[in-house]
Amino acid sequence: MNFLKVDPSNYLLFACAKQDKREVQIQQEFSRSEGKDGGDDETDFEKIYNVKIWAITLRELLLFNSIYLAKTLSNIIELVTDQPNPSVFYKSFLEFDGSNMVSILSFDSRSMEYLLSDEFE
Prior knowledge:
By secondary structure, the protein is of the alpha+beta class. It contains 5 helices and 4 strands; from the N terminus they run βββαααβαα.
């Protein structure tokens, strides 16, 4: 998961590892002075961003498998537009190395136009 780091010196914190809720936090270390004489420095961590990792369902797995097996771009667009709720494409999965389907589908402007439409604001 090191690819999630903004800077190589950032830290990864697996904040919650329960079955239904997994969260990875990317943090930056910083120091702050406690006293006026510059004595005691306190080290702390600032959250840069969080990534929620979802557990994949059978339905989602079958949908993603269908997208990979689609023979033409029009079949992919049809699968994307047939989904009543596009949030499945925005979820991050460990099976995609912490990525999501939007980043994978970004090659197709028609799919992205549908996923980013005002209808799903």
